[in-house]
């Protein structure tokens, strides 16, 4: 049989190729058993001809892009090929690479109990990106509820998919299910379904910040960044904010009793972050006058 696209990538030179072989697995070669997440949770088979190595590459690309830019990216064949070629010197021992393996370890621990059908590709993408957002800033309380929250979510998606012809307006179909059917490897589809997935998972888990006085956690920062359309909310500005330059401003100052909640947070460019009492008061008045949720100023 002729080689498929992923089998050809497996033969390309470079450290990224080696990393994906080790993560995704190539069972016919003993040194590439693959991570337990793909073997046990996703139930990868030895005869899959690179399906799970391709998925592993897609998830790593999304994970790396999100960590570096805060944005989503395409993960189609052209995007995969470009990433492989561009990252020949990929550092398999970097902090980000080690963290990715840690995320897979956590997911294997939480979902590897054999109590559910195999995880699908679009689910794996959402799970990895969500856990990446939760690892640093929150106590482990969310881990106790994670599996149940995920099972509940996929049940509702399944029900909505079955009933889509009778009720195409179901939010689980409109905002998630149908986005796994067409253009599912495009950035806009991945972003839209991930925002919905995070919102539903967050609502059913007990998220507790390790240090609530320090500021917003990673997940809250991501939600506000998306909610505010990646634009600075300071009056008169409105320019797009790069992830590296993004800060979250307490509308009612924390020192004045303002809570660290989504409703009390706004995206600002770090150079525009209100600091003086006058600027803080002006921002709060502007926010109240136009009404939340935020939009481009």
Could you give the topology of this structure?
Elements: H1 5-9, H2 15-24, H3 36-41, H4 51-69, H5 77-86, H6 95-111, H7 121-134, H8 141-162, H9 171-174, H10 187-203, H11 218-227, E1 246-250, E2 265-269, H12 277-290
Antiparallel strand pairs: 1-2
Helix pairs in contact: 2-4, 4-7, 6-7
Which percent range describes the beta-strand content? Answer: under 5%
Give a short account of the largest sheet: 2 strands, antiparallel
Give the SSE order as H and E letters: HHHHHHHHHHHEEH
Structural class: mainly alpha
- Uncertain residue ranges: none
Strand order of the largest sheet: 1-2
Count of DSSP strands: 2
List keywords for this structure.
mainly alpha, two-stranded antiparallel sheet
Structure description:
- This protein is mainly alpha-helical and 297 residues long.
- It contains twelve helices and two strands, in the order αααααααααααββα.
- The chain has helices at residues 5-9, 15-24, 36-41, 51-69, 77-86, 95-111, 121-134, 141-162, 171-174, 187-203, 218-227, 277-290; strands spanning 246-250, 265-269.
- A two-stranded antiparallel sheet has the order 1-2.
- Helix 2 (15-24) crosses helix 4 and helix 4 packs parallel to helix 7 (121-134).
- The radius of gyration is 21 Å and the shape is globular.
- The N and C termini lie far apart (57 Å).
- The mean pLDDT is 91.
